[in-house]
Amino acid sequence: MKPRVFTQWTPPATAVPAANLAQAPGAALRAGGPATGRGRLAARNGLSDRALAWLFVGPTIVLLLAFNIFPLLWTIYLSFTNFRANRPNAEIGWLGISNYQRVLNDEAIWENMRTTAHFLCTSIALQLLLGFALALLLNRKFRSHSFWSTAILLPMMLAPAVVGTFWKYFFEPQYGIFNAIARFFGASGNFTMLGDTQLSPWAIVLVDTWMWTPYVMLLLLAGLRSIPPYLYEAAEIDRASEWTKFWRITLPMVMPFIILALLFRSIENFKMFDLVDNLTNGGPGSVTELASIHLKREAFEKWRTGYSSAFAIILFVAIYGMSLVTVRFLDKVKQR
Amino acid sequence: MSNAKSTLRRLLAGAALGLTALGAQAQDKQLTLCWAAWDPANALVELSKDFTAKTGIQMKYEFVPWPNFAQRMLNELNSKGKLCDLLIGDSQWIGSAATEGHYVKLNEFFDKNAIKMADFMPATVEGYSTWPKGTKNYWALPAMGDAVAFTYRKDWFARPELRAEFKQKHGRDLAPPATWDEFKQVAQFFQNRTIDGKKVYGSALYTERGSEGITMGVTNAMYAYGMEYDNPQKPYDMKGYINGPGAVKGLKLYKELYDCCVPPGHGNAYMTEDLDAYKSGQVAMQMNFIAFFPGISKDPQVGGEKTGFFPIPKGDKQHAQLGGQGISVVKYSDKKDMALEYLKWFAQPSVQKKWWDGGGFTCHTAILNAPGFDKSTPYAKVFLDSMKMVKDFWAEPSYAQLMLAMQNRVHDYVVAGKGTPNAALDALLKDWVEVFKEDGKIK
Questions:
Q1: Do B265 and A192 touch (CB under 8 A)?
Q2: CB distance from A284 to chain B under 8 Å?
């Protein structure tokens, strides 16, 4: 078979180093400049580089506009109206910022936000703590290391709805395995995690931690493995203690990964729905009703589309703001 | 060779065309009926085979489990979907479905085909078919009569040692409770008792939070002490009715029953959970819709002579929460004529008789008033008695908002133990006033 010959684009002989150029090589091409090299090739086939670029990027942009940007804009519009999706024939009235005022003055919403904050803070703190401990453990070589690494990752491979459902059975007061263990350690016969208003917020934290600690562990393990060994070797020479090595080398080097884990888990837990919906459905009473569950009930059970759109926008802004702060912090940590 | 090939091609094309045409024809002569996935739906599948045999119209079914039924079907209607030609929808949907034009109005069709609403039990016509309430605008044919009632373990109630102990303790026989006070006594008597080496509990009640469960349960106790949704003389005037002393008393009683007499972890239980608790021999009594009673009657573990049935107990008054549904023709269907033909067939007394015999719950008075009906099954009398005293939740277009507000307020008090019954009902009144204000029904 005759090997194919590809022509490599080479800069003109008079070319100066890229750093000295006002424009990087190829920029003229990207800007649709004189057709040379690949540009000539594409032009020969009837398409300029710019057209080719649009051809590749276009479908993605169209999809992004259709499924992300348009719904977002439409939601913003609806949030200023009294529209209800179950009354398509009713006239849509403009309410101004009234929906936003009502959301922000709604006691139930603030209670949901408090529940969400409790869930978010406690579950992420536990996941970071346990995830880091597991990552430190798995960063060492020991027998059946790869088996344990895979086994620990199993929970995060399951669907959250499935996890919620089977933990519901684990917590079942009469035949649940969790309750059997609790009874073994002295809990009363009527002990119930999901039916108790004090314990059920912890039940959702426990299940979320069980499911997502492996994910945090994976991120932090990647961080640990990226630390150059010579840092530890230098510390050894300086007779640094294990604690000093951890505090001065491990933690600062892994910090960007910790912040990344914090960012990903915060976003995920802020919009957590399926796991909690299947586990407690927001109950007992409304002690585990997260903001996302409340939003779903307002939007698709009560059909208050305008009101729930306002709530969704407020949640979106909150998540966006939270992420922005975390990303800025991440940049600062990286610059240190 | 080329001739043979071309002949073969023509034959294949012809066969494909023929098959497509047959398929299309079969689809044309096919109706889709949507309902909840439960025992009566299976009975309807059997019954509808007669319709197919008579008309040649094939029946296809879309049965959705109860917890998702309302959301799935209401989404379908709101999006003007063509999935369902016929829909057996919940009684509370009628206001919204009529107002938004999801259902075909049936008055003209009934008149033309001599289907008389007077032939159906009045409570079911009012509950399942009419909107606005009190008018003669019909949007559905009463299909499945239902109400909340109780089952009890007849075999446990008959045990001499238990009977003796109960009589000694309460000075009366251990029998199905007639009043809510008696109900509490019996439930407490069985709570945490060991029967056949197994710990058992008083009663399975409705406590579900997500859809309508706890409301379908608690209202039975609230009606018993005089709760009304609004002033019968002045619609939407709810102050002193939904939060009146009777309503408070009923709610408090339900909380006491929840605290004293349900199995552990029974804080989010509806039809299925109650059935499970009863069929697995955990509870002496079970609150549930009568529609489940044929299945319980035939159950190998608790059926036959082991189970008895009784209606909702009395307080100062006696009312049972209405369940059940009417069958409607969906306006967006392309097969409305065939769907109406199904309704015409279904309304016949002979079909209604077969419906009851097969495990469905007819609303047709010709069957219900026939001699011997109350003895035709062990639960027939409870069905008849209950249907005479039913009351229904709001059927307003905003019923979902009204329902979820009640679910939240009542669950917060009964299950989570937050606040007082007065505070819960005052908050509910506030929620409902806001809903009706939004609807422009009150100022």
A1: yes
A2: yes
Q: Give the pLDDT score at A186.
A: 87
Annotated domain spans of chain A: 36-78, 100-335
Long-range contacts of A312-321 (CB under 8 A, 24+ apart): A312/A75, A312/A79, A313/A75, A313/A76, A313/A79, A313/A100, A314/A100, A314/A103, A314/A104, A315/A270, A315/A271, A315/A291, A316/A72, A318/A270, A319/A267, A319/A270, A319/A271
pLDDT tens per residue, range A115-158: 999 999 999 999 999 999 999 999 988 888 889 888 999 999 99
Residue A91, chain B, CB below 8 Å: the answer is no
Contact A194 B416 (CB under 8 A): no
pLDDT band of residue B7 (cuts 50, 70, 90) is: low
> Does A2 score more than 70 pLDDT?
no
Which residue in chain A is spatially nearest to B101 when comparing CA positions?
A89
- What is the reported pLDDT for A23? 46
Residue B2 included in any domain = no
Residues B408 and B305 in one domain: yes
Q: A290 — contact with chain B (CB < 8 Å)?
A: no
- The answer on B215 and B125 residing in a single domain is no
- pLDDT per residue as tens digits for the range A104-126: 999 989 999 999 999 999 999 99
User: Is the pLDDT reported for residue A209 higher than 80?
Assistant: yes
Residue A14 clears pLDDT 90, i.e. is over it: no
With a cut of 60, say whether residue B248 has pLDDT above it.
Answer: yes
Q: Is residue B11 part of a domain?
A: no
Q: Do B415 and A284 make contact, defined as CB atoms within 8 angstroms?
A: yes
Q: Do B264 and A280 touch (CB under 8 A)?
A: no
Domain of B236? 148-321+398-438
What residues in A contact B406, CB-CB < 8 Å? none
Identify all chain A residues contacting B92, using CB atoms and an 8 Å cutoff: none
B246 lies in a domain?
A: yes
Residues B139 and B153 in one domain: no
Q: Spell out the SS3 assignment of A147-178.
A: HHHHHHHHHHHCCHHHHHHHHHHHCCCCCCHH
Average pLDDT over residues B134-155: 96
- pLDDT, residue A334, reads 80
Residue A287 in contact with partner chain B when CB distance is under 8 A: yes
What is the model's pLDDT at position B391?
94
> Is B404 within 8 Å of A300 when comparing Cβ atoms?
no
Residue B112, C-beta contacts closer than 8 angstroms, at least 6 positions apart: none
Q: How many domains does chain B have?
A: 2
Residue A332: count of CB within 10 angstroms of its CB: 10
Domain A100-335 class?
mainly alpha
DSSP designation for B174: -
What ipTM does this complex have? 0.76
**Long-range CB pairs of A138-142, under 8 A, 24+ apart, other chains included:** A138/A217, A138/A221, A139/A221, A139/A224, A139/A225
Whether residues B175 and B139 share a domain: the answer is no
Domain at B418, CATH number:
3.40.190.10
Q: Answer yes or no: is B301 within a domain.
A: yes
